[in-house]
Design goal:
Length: 290
């Protein structure tokens, strides 16, 4: 019977916060591309436009909301996934099948997506504020100011208007990232001579990030559109209006989404694994690497 280290419940959220500090400008550009209706401006053009109009630091608009989202969304989804997974592995002494990992990841993603939707709404609005006319800008100063004003001006339930899509996206994202990463890491360790090292973590997280981008992009586009405006009567209305722009509208901003999500996934799991290896919980296991 050997020893291994397990994740602490908050490691996933903490790793996501660090990754977000690096990749937030890419997320802001992605939101701008997803919400444009007429102008067809690419990734570089959007970045230069933001900088020229509002300065370099405008790329970090909404950072407080983005960090708040990670502290609700990612803390919850990773805590649920790792807690359930480790309970089965270490208490029942059995390996998990991939479908079990998918179920646990989906559950964590649904709950995390719901809890993180208020901060996500403020994040989307703060990032997109500079695009709208000055007299229509919301000018939220930080995430708590944004939430307070939404409650006062639009009602408490408005904070959760994009929750169904956020929960759905959270489920798909966590399946691709958490369970996908675990399975890919297991395959790399089983089929190659790689050890539980940085190179293994990067390979598995890169593929997981690519899968997450392709799987989540349609829901991400719909979620962003619903959170940015109250012009839609519901999810079906949002889907129908987006569909009128053509099928590719659901994949609008896929390139910047990949440019943001793949590095974010790599950084998250690299930091997560370093936290596990250096500060994780030491447990006994006779199962080997899962």
């Amino acid at each position: 019977m050997g020893k291994k280290t397990a994740f602490r419940w908050y490691f996933g959220g903490l790793a996501s916060v660090v990754a977000t500090c690096v990749t937030h400008p890419l997320d802001l550009i992605k939101v701008h591309l997803q919400t444009q209706h007429r102008a067809n401006i690419g990734f570089t053009g959007t970045a230069m436009r933001v900088i020229s109009f509002s300065g370099f630091m405008a790329l970090y608009n909404g950072l407080s909301a983005s960090l708040c989202r990670q502290l609700t969304y990612s803390v919850t989804r990773f805590a649920i996934y790792h807690s359930m997974r480790d309970h089965v592995i270490h208490n029942q002494k059995q390996h998990l099948y991939f479908y079990q990992k998918v179920y646990m990841a989906a559950l964590g993603g649904v709950v995390g997506g719901f809890l993180g939707s208020p901060a996500e709404m403020v994040n989307v609005r703060m990032q997109n504020d500079m695009k709208i006319p000055v007299h229509l800008r919301r000018n939220y100063s930080h995430v708590l100011n944004g939430m307070t004003r939404i409650i006062q001006e639009e009602g408490f339930l408005t904070l959760f208007s994009g929750a169904p899509l956020a929960s759905g996206r959270g489920a798909l994202m966590t399946v691709a990232q958490a369970s996908g990463y675990d399975q890919l890491k297991q395959l790399v360790l089983t089929l190659t001579s790689f050890s539980d090292s940085l190179s293994t973590h990067i390979i598995a997280s890169f593929i997981a990030g690519l899968c997450a981008t392709l799987l989540c992009q349609p829901l991400d586009v719909l979620k962003t559109r619903m959170m940015n405006t109250q012009d839609y009567d519901g999810i079906i209305h949002c889907i129908s209006k987006t569909a009128k722009l053509g099928p590719l509208a659901f994949y609008k901003g896929t390139f910047p989404a990949a440019i943001r999500l793949i590095p974010h996934t790599i950084l998250t799991f690299v930091f997560l694994e370093q936290l596990r290896l250096n500060y994780g919980i030491s447990v006994k296991s006779d199962l080997g690497q899962d």
